[in-house]
Amino acid sequence: MNLLEMLMSAGGTAAVGQLGSRFGLDENQTMAALQHLVPALGNGLQRNVSSEGGLESLLGALAGGGHSQFLDNPDMLNSGDATMTGNGILGHLLGSKEASREVAANASAHTGIGADVLKQMLPLVATMVMGGLSKQSSQAGFLGGQDTPAQPEGLLGMLTPLLDSNRDGSVADDVLGMIGRYMRNR
Question: Is the pTM of this model over 0.85?
Answer without folding.
Answer: no
